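Before relying on records like the one below, remember that each one covers exactly one chain. Contacts with other chains, cofactors or solvent are not represented anywhere in the record.
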Amino acid sequence: MADTPSNMLPLGTKAPDFSLLDTVSNSTLNLNTLKGEKGTVIFFICNHCPFVIHINKEIVAIANAYAEKDIGFIAISSNDIIKYPQDSPEKMKIHAKHENYPFPYLYDETQDIAKAYNAACTPDFYVFNAHLKLTYRGQLDDSRPGNNLPVTGKDLRYALDCLIKNKENTQLQKPSIGCSIKWKN
């Protein structure tokens, strides 16, 4: 497992639009219908990454807590499923149901959306305001597999609290660390 950091898209960047297959409902969903009234968290994950597996329960807890505060959550997997068949749409659906994902789990087959977001790793988190302008990008928290720090979601939670309170997030935004997105050749 290689430690790959986020690319840290510039704050203020407008969220690139997309229409992708939701592997759970088997329908095509787009950013405009999925975005939250107060903000939207878009994050790149996959089924097999140990960094994502390490934080899955916290992602679900945060999504459940903040959905009540009009924050939308959208998970996207962009991995090459030829080399990584465990990340196929069929297995994404099984994984989403097993983990009780309360958000759509979209498949970026062309990898164009990962490239548009300059995503580099799984997990990679982006928080956009009501106008789809980037206010936070980076890590969930400081916990990583094997570092014995508790998974709290403190960085993402703080970013979302700032967004909801219309307060500037002045904390250092640290890159996420995870497995590299598995790019097609």
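The first strand starts at residue 4 and ends at 5.
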